[in-house]
Amino acid sequence: MARAEKINFSTPSGFPEFLPGEKRLELYLLDTIRRVFESYGFTPIETPAVERLEVLQAKGNQGDNIIYGIDPILPPNRQAEKDKSGETGSEARALKFDQTVPLAAYIARHLNDLTFPFARYQMDVVFRGERAKDGRFRQFRQCDIDVVGRRELNLLYDAQMPAIITEIFTAINIGDFIIRINNRKILTGFFQSVGIEADKIKSCIGIIDTLEKVGENKVKQDLEKDGVSSEQAQKIIDFIKIRGAVDEVLDKLKYFAQTMPEAEQFNLGVTELETVIAGVRNLGVPENSFCIDLSIARGLDYYTGTVYETTLIGHEALGSICSGGRYEELVGVFLGEKMPGVGISIGLTRLMSRLLKAGILNTFAPTPAQVMVVNMQEDLMPLYLKISQQLRQAGINVVTSFDKRGIGKQFQLADKQGIQFCVIIGADEAAVQKSSLKDLKSGEQVEVSLENLAEEIKSRLA
Description:
The protein is of the alpha+beta class. The chain is built from 17 helices and 16 strands. The chain has helices at 20-39, 53-56, 76-85, 100-109, 156-171, 184-193, 201-208, 211-214, 216-225, 230-240, 246-259, 264-282, 348-357, 381-393, 407-416, 427-431, 453-461; strands at residues 43-44, 50-52, 69-70, 93-95, 118-127, 139-148, 177-183, 290-292, 303-312, 322-327, 341-347, 371-373, 398-400, 421-424, 434-439, 445-449. Helix 14 links the parallel strand 12 (371-373) and strand 13.
């Protein structure tokens, strides 16, 4: 045989590949997240991995994300046809970098088929052409929910988001976390009150959003580079550093609203935040699971009201493990009408990677099988197949060993895959309709009748 040409088959940088135990963990997390989403009435949708480039670039909504364009590699005869046809810009396509912009296009395409407020969840893979590094991927799975209304959307939908976040992270048992809540109108109103020019407010919010990454001094320097005076920058820093219990912070904000000039936008933000906090409490979210953090800004331009970031206590270096907020203009951009929405997103691939590395989560066993039916002799294979099916019908996951090898080798194979129990049936056992059940974790081995085998295994698994 001719020697094959050497091909680099390693995974491209930034594109993850999971071993079986990692993939099983991801599926468990997806199932857990899905159950919580659906318990609040969110319905699943799927949008294409590829959208028109002009959709993804609508109103500059890609933020700092680098979009992967799609340019098919055609055979020579087809390429000539393409060159001759001269595709227009509207035909340019790219991979989606998030779920929110495609949601806006989805709603525009299916407006007459949907009921509003429209609550959807989506757990798809997205693509970003950023520099690949630890915990950052170019392909990753995002778990999103959004509620979109027509013309208006009740602030209680904003209040639901922390309740949903709390249920998800409590269910997957990763430790204590804090949901930090703010309102962009409060920041905008405060900037107005200290004399920041209107055309600089968005860039100032973007700078504030980097506080945890770069520190207070760098934020102040960047604000001054953006044309903010040293005095204004210090007032901004002092404001976003306000801390305390939720009610204490709300009282301070109300005091500011009464004393500052041009407080209309600020006051509206405080009123909205107070409404959201009341809803969060009424939904039973524990007081130690949320706070008001005036430094939370969310850098993307389309957020206009409530914003959220979730931090794992003791592991703050992981960054936000779930974030989102309210937007007023994004979804309606394709329809020319006001369609406010609120949503959150969990970057599941990044989160899982970091939780595994920190030892907060562990991978699952490579196989979902709980039992291996050992192959003691080939002529008993019909019995092994029958027993395997009976166990499966009882809700037990089973691997049947088809290849004849030493029993010790079969035990080793089962143990390597994380299978706890082995069913052993030789000629003597078959003759009296019994089996030996070996627990590979404890080393215990007991004799069980074939009739009672399923119940015995289920009780031990329980």
